[in-house]
Amino acid sequence: MIQDFFTAAWHEFTSFWQLGEAYDIIASGNYDKLRTLDGVLSFVKPIIPFLLLFEILRAVFYKRFRIEDYKVPFFIFVFNRVLGAYISIAAVSFCIGFFSEYAVIKTRFTWYWLIYGYIVWEFAHFIYHYLAHKVRLFWCLHSSHHAPQNMNLSVSYAHFFLEGPYANVIRTTICVLAGLDPPLLFFIMFIDGTWGTFIHIGDNIMKDARMGVLNRYILTPSHHRVHHAKNPLYMDTNFCNLLNIWDKVFGTLQTEDRTVPVEYGITRKINPKNFWDVYFGEIVFLARDVKNAPGIRNKLLYVFMPPGWSHTGEHKTARLIRREARDPLQRNELPAQ
């Protein structure tokens, strides 16, 4: 029993730090695997977790560390380890198996198909992410990721356990139908996951997160800080993850304005230190609105309309908040929607 406990604990430790594959290579002494893509990736994967550790240690050293900035994301990570991981894997496997025969084309793992595949993946990510902000049921799954009132790498782990499966069903289905074969898809997922974690880096490490000229061509940490903001100027923007092509196409790209400091969090009153409020709060409020809404139609509308919609007509959706903020005195020049 004791040995099993320590084995399980070691597995969880190496899983978080992404050390398992690299440890196996070092322990075996067989470094030939480093000539393969999988071997190289096994040493790339630990970079983000150790960057998180560096972020924390640096905050401690400069006396800027606040346990509340990391506590709830950590609890969410642990909670999701029990509930979410296997469901998400099963969702991806099901979509690949079911939709592969309906693919419009067939791709291979080459550099040109990688470019095509990433553009398709980014479109699929945009669709999932846009719906996560525009459909209240999906916002309930996504809001825990926006609840933290500070930005750091631990925020990337703060997701409701069903959001991964929901996101992967949409993204995988679109990509498989577009012809991405599994090896290519999984490689793109790895890039997306790594970059998607990195863009949550806090200003403790990267004060100016625009990354120079790259800010024009990709979604930088600066863009993602904007995405996590509750300022009217910034709400519901920058839905892509790495390539900003689809935000440009759909008019949702918003760069960081130096005169408008980012205010993180969500617009409803929330206790960001309370795990239950962060994780289940939006679900509770949705259930309450559905219960009190008159008639089946209004009950359904609360589920599928954007957050802030009200059957009374007193809407407080992001679109209306942004529209009201277009007052020239506020100097908010907003992208068209």
Please tell me about this protein's structure.
It is a single chain. With about 325 residues, the chain is an all-alpha fold. It has a domain at about 45-250. Helix content is about 60%, strand content about 0%. It is built from 15 helices and no strands. It has helices spanning about 1-15, 20-30, 35-45, 45-60, 70-85, 85-100, 110-135, 135-145, 165-175, 180-200, 220-225, 245-250, 275-290, 295-305, 320-325. The longest helix is centred in the middle third of the chain and has 24 residues, at about 110-135.
Mean of all residue-level pLDDT scores:
85
Largest sheet: none
Strand residue percentage: under 5%
Structural class: mainly alpha
Mass-distribution shape? globular
Output the helix-strand order: HHHHHHHHHHHHHHH
- Total helices: the number is 15
Number of strands: 0
Regions with little confidence, pLDDT below 50 for 5+ residues:
328-337
Percent in helix: 55-70%
Give the end-to-end Cα distance, rounded to a whole number of Å. Answer: 59 Å
| Rg calc | 21 Å
